[in-house]
Structures are given as C-alpha cells and as structure tokens.
Amino acid sequence: MINSVKNLIFFVIIITATVISIVYYPRPIKSAPPTSVKDTLSSSQLSYFARLGTGVSASDSLIRVALSGNPTNDTNNLFVGDTIGIGTTVTGLLTLYTVKDIGNTALFQINSPISQSNTFVNAAIISTHSAVHTFSFTPQSNFTGGYWEFLIKASNTAGEAINDGIPDSNGFDLGATTPSSGANGVGTRLKVTDVTCPSNWGIGATTAYNVGTTAVITSGVGTTATYHVISCYLGIGGTNQIGVGYTMTIGKDLASGSQLINPSPANTAEGSADVYTFYIRHRDSSSALFDGDTIQGKIALVEAVRVTATVDPTITFTIDATGVGTGSTACNSPAFGLNGANTTATQVAFGTLILDSANDLGHRLSAITNADNGYIVTVYEDGKMENITSGTTIPDTTCGGGGCTTSGVGTSWTSFTASGWGYTIQNLSVGTTIFSYGNYRPFGDGAANAQQIMKNIATPSATEQAYVCYRLTASSTQEAGNYENRLIYTATATF
Fold first, then answer.
1. pLDDT at residue 22 above 50?
2. What is the CA angle 145-151-154, rounded to 5?
3. pLDDT digit string, tens, across residues 167-176
4. How far apart are CA 222 and CA 304, in angstroms?
5. Where are the transmembrane segments (predicted)?
6. Are 223 and 341 in a shared domain?
7. 123 & 136 share domain
8. To the nearest 5 percent, what fractions of the chain are helix, strand and coil?
9. If both were cysteines, with which of 121, 206, 311, 469 could 362 make a disulfide (CB 3.0 to 4.6 Å apart)?
10. Count of domains in the chain?
11. d(CA 50, CA 355)
C-alpha cells in the first residue's frame, strides 16, 4: 500500500513537471532548418569606390580616377546621372556632385567645377547603390513566442565603419544618420520601420523589433565574419506555421525609407561576382539559439553593364507644293489661280501678273529633328525682285502703306495699287510659328536679315508643317518685263 502511494505521488510529480516544462519551456515541434530559402535583391549592382588621381585642380569639372590600389580603379560601374561624393580636407566629409559624362576608363565629367577642398590626391570618390532584401523561407520548426533572425554580411575589415553611409569592400553598410553633403556617406541609416516581417505569422507582430545589432560567426578553423542582425518577433503566444512559405523585406523605397548599401568591389576581376553569405536562424522565447534550425544562403553582386550607343543628330526639311495648287486658299489668300499648278519645290512661277491686284501662290514647309532643343527655319531674299533686263525692282511690300517690317508681327495687306513683294504664314502643326497667317511681312534682304518663320524649342513628336504664302502686286505703271528673285531657306537643329 505504501509503495502504491509512493508510486502515485511520483507519477503526479512527473506529470506536473512535464506540464510546467511544456508551458514555460516549450520546445520546437521538430528541429530542422527552413527550406526554399533565398534573399532576392532589388539591385545586385556593386557600389562605386574609387579615389582621385593626380592632375585635378580647383575649378576643373573633368575628374581623373586613380588607376590602382582601390576597390574601383576606373570609371566602369559609373553612370551618367549618378550622384557621387568626393572626400574633402575635413576628414569623413563629402561634397556631392552629379556625373554628366564619362570620357574613358580614367576620366568622367561632373556637373559643376570641383571645389578646392576636394582636389587632394586619393580623395575618396563614392557612388552608393542600395537594395531591398526580400527573404523567402519555409520554416520546418516553430516555437511559441520565439523569433527568427536574418543575418546579412557586415564588414570586419579594418578602417571600414559598418554604418557611415560609405560603401564597404567586405559587406553591406547600414547607412549614415543624415544624407547631406555635410555627412559621412549619402544613405540614411536603416531603421526598424524599414523592415516588414511576415504578415501571415498567424499570431504575433509584423514589424521588426531589432535592427542594427551585429553577430560574429565562426566558419572553418579560426575564420570569423561579422553580420548585421535583423529580427522578426512572433509575439507572446505567437507561432509560425510549419511548411508554409513566408517572406520578409529589409528596406523600403528610398523616397519613404532606407536600404542597406551594397558593397564596393572586393574582387579585382571586373565582371566576376562577389559572393556573400547570409543566414536565417531561430531562437526560442528565452533567446536560446537552435543551431539545428540555422541555414545559410548565398547572394552575388557584380558591376552593372554600361550599354552605350550613339544616335546621329538628324534634321529633315522639305519644300513642296502639296496643298497649294490651283484653287487653294492657304493662308486665307484668295483662291490661287491657274498658275498654282506651276509651283514646284524649286520654283514659284507667277506667270503674267494681274495689275493692281493680289497675285498669290505658296509652298508647304515640313521639318523634323531629333535635337533636344528642337529646330529653327529661317528665310531671306538674296536681292530684290528685279527686272532681269533693266534692273528695275518691285519693292519689298509696305503692306499697302501699313508700315510692315521684316521682323514685325505682320500687317494686314488689302490695298494693291502699289507694287510690292512679301509673304505670310499659316501654321499647320508647328510647335511655335513666328507670326500668324493673315498678316504680311517683306522678306529680309541678305543672310544678315534672315527671319525665323518656323520653330520648336523641344524635340518634335512628328513632322511639323506650315504653309508659306507669297504675294506679289504690280501697279499699272510697273515697268514691263520678266522679274526674278531668290529665296534662301535654312533649317537648323538645336542640340
């Protein structure tokens, strides 16, 4: 009987201890590393870290790169539009510039002359590239109230700070505290709010509770490496599911958050990726680490490939008789007479003029260019409308006494009893036309007096067109004979 009571008491003690152990010291359902593990980077481009070479003086905008002894020894992996920081005589500070052009592997141009404080040999030249890390993994164990840690390589190289915003050659930089020209580096420091933990834990928090601590991991005999540690906590009573895939992200869009800065090159062979190890590991609610749940993965970073091509500058300009034939009323002119059929790309044949009357003909002008700043079309007359036998001229029009000028906005021309020679314009599809159709001007005489008649200050999206309409009047006393003039059109692209 006594033995039976003892056995019962012992059994109760064992059951109670087991319950207490389960409640207060939970163990994983099983211990096994996650599967389907990967870290996907939004950009795997290495950061740029070169140094200033010799021969650069204050007020230069052409920067020479030192060609040896640095993580980057050329202009490869540098791109037009990149923001770069150049070291100053004040230790640790940078002045920011923008890359405007890249000449060759040793030279690039910046957007403004370099400051005197940046012109010392071996001044750091950096251009940071950063990335959002998206971890994917499928846990094979769980722990109530535990948490998962994500470890990303940090530098343990002497002289490289892991959180100054300057790219390191042996790991990812956490970023500086302020992204200004007066701060170290150009990236802001990664924060807890920049990390998004899995949203489908089942129970528990979805934001990181720890960012920025470091861990040292030994791999191999005497080999140690330093890692940034970002932790996702399951919360009190929370647990992940087994066999269910999760994702978490480290970093946000730079407009609203921060990202880890990618390393500068560690491998001197350009085009050969630098490979870094990352870890995912599991801790219980008391922070005890389960080595059996730890898994490592690899990520590779490499220089971006600069693809270059040249598009030759072009401009096309044509003069034709489309839309200005017999009966046309371009530019609000009276209907062109039978001589409208005689207009060609190289001739405007008025034929026999009707005296004391408007004689109208025209051309269609077309222009297109790929120039950034568009184009300008000008015209001038090379001499007067002149009798080829006697030299008598038909004067440039005064628009019936209206006082129109070669460079004015034009004037209405309704009186035709005086001889005159001029033109007007009708805009069909031009970005900007100099003056409106319906008003007339005389042609400028000689190249020095050429006038703009079509223009667009931006790159046209399609061929742009306008009518130019010529008007010639001869009074009843104008000397008889054959008259001739020459018009010079010039189309110029503005690059």
1. no
2. 145
3. 999 999 998 8
4. 34
5. 7-25
6. no
7. no
8. 10, 35, 55
9. 469
10. 3
11. 79
